[in-house]
Specification:
This protein is mainly beta. The chain contains one helix and nine strands; from the N terminus they run αβββββββββ.
């Protein structure tokens, strides 16, 4: 089941890359993301500090703006989800799948923007969709020639705008990815 879902997501990203419009650039990327525990929604999306997820992304750029479609897979989650039963033991989480879309503003070396996501959390009781949530992103883009680049980014994840009142640098997340532009 998991393998089929992951292959479907990768296939969809590759299909999207084939739908490139003539005027803009497209890119495919793959990378890893260092996750953090978020105090305001740890019960819904139970990432722990240091959890690692892996992602694939398709980006379509037009001028200074880029739309990014991403699919994130987190196989080893250290956090636990509360049991639906009153007084039940916390539930182990098998994996988390997170599709998302972002609008980024880019130049040759810098990236920044925001987007939305939903997460499918598979636990001992089955699975459920959590969210939607939002993310703000800033990062650096290091080109290696005209086709390859290394992207480094920092994310702040939130589920409500009131989360900004409780901003904590310990809740920032970081990613690195290799991108291919075509």
């Amino acid at each position: 089941m998991m393998r089929k879902l992951l292959m479907s997501a990768v296939s969809a990203l590759l299909l999207a890359s084939g739908l490139e419009a003539q005027a803009g650039d497209s890119s495919l990327g793959a990378g890893a993301r260092y996750r953090a525990k978020h105090s305001t929604f740890a019960d819904e999306i139970p990432f722990g500090n240091g959890d690692i997820s892996y992602f694939a992304a398709y980006q379509y750029s037009e001028g200074l703006a880029a739309w990014e479609l991403a699919f994130d897979y987190a196989p080893d989650i250290s956090g636990k989800k509360p049991s639906a039963a009153e007084g039940g033991d916390p539930l182990d989480v098998d994996y988390i799948l997170t599709p998302g879309i972002s609008l980024l503003f880019t130049d040759k070396y810098f990236r920044g923007g925001g987007g939305t996501f939903m997460s499918y959390v598979r636990d001992d009781d089955g699975g459920s969709w959590e969210g939607p949530g939002g993310q703000l992103q800033v990062g650096l883009h290091f080109p290696f020639g005209s086709k390859l680049a290394l992207d480094l980014a920092t994310y702040y994840i939130f589920t409500r705008f009131s989360d900004f009142e409780e901003f904590d640098f310990g809740e920032l997340e970081y990613s690195g990815s290799l991108t291919y532009t075509f």
